[in-house]
Amino acid sequence: MYHTWMRFLTPSPVHHRLGLVCLGVGLQHGPLPTVGPRTLDSHVAVVISSGTGWYETPDGRRRAVTAPALLWLTPGVPHHYAPDPGTGWDEGFVGFTGPATTTYTDLGYIEPDRPVVELSDAAGPRAVIARIVRAARRDNPLLEVETGAAVHELLVALRRARADLAPDGDPVLKALARDAFKPMSVADHAGRHGMTLAELRTAVRRGAGCSPKDYLLGIRLDRAKELLAATELPVAAVARRVGYDDPAYFSRLFTRRVGMPPVRFRAQEARTVPGGWSNQVPDPGDLPRV
What is the C-alpha separation between 32 and 43, in angstroms, rounded? Predict the structure, then answer.
């Protein structure tokens, strides 16, 4: 005997403008019926937390599915799958759509070319699905916004749970972050790791969803903003601290990416305090109460 609970949602056009909306959520377990062959118009993430089964690709090839695993059901792509009839499996699924799915796909969080993804642990994604289930009650006035926000969180949780990626980045990304403020080119970074430029691009794209140049630039500009807001260092000194010997080039780069020059950013965001900012990430529960 199998057990199924599901709820389907119909967000309004206004909610669709948020970029990502939840269309449905469900929990199922046991020897569930075969799904498909069928084709959907929206995305569905199926998280298998226990059990085994199979997934059949459009060309008829069948591959085994062993929990913990994720099934990506993407729009316009036929799919066909089922748990093993003798054992069944335990699944939670979330359907979603919106223009933000294109960006998440570009970043590698949604993988249309990998319909079956091994997970290191399904606990994180299942916890988010449980929150969507709780939010999906019919008397919830925050229904569409709360479930839509949780879909963003689910995509992050699924990215963290992928078995082929470390949850918080791989050694290459950690090394790039460590050396980001050194006046090195992307080719220099590749050489330091014994990699070709193409290999470094692939590694960074897979781990961070962007090019090495953009990854390093983001780290440098984040630090530059902190220095501009928390210190009185001249812009030229800030530029040198984040790896740019030419302050004019740094200012142009900062302006193009941030949307305002460094001096204007400082004027808006300055938070200079005696002793400077703390480098230790605080626990919100430990913050002193006024």
Answer: 20
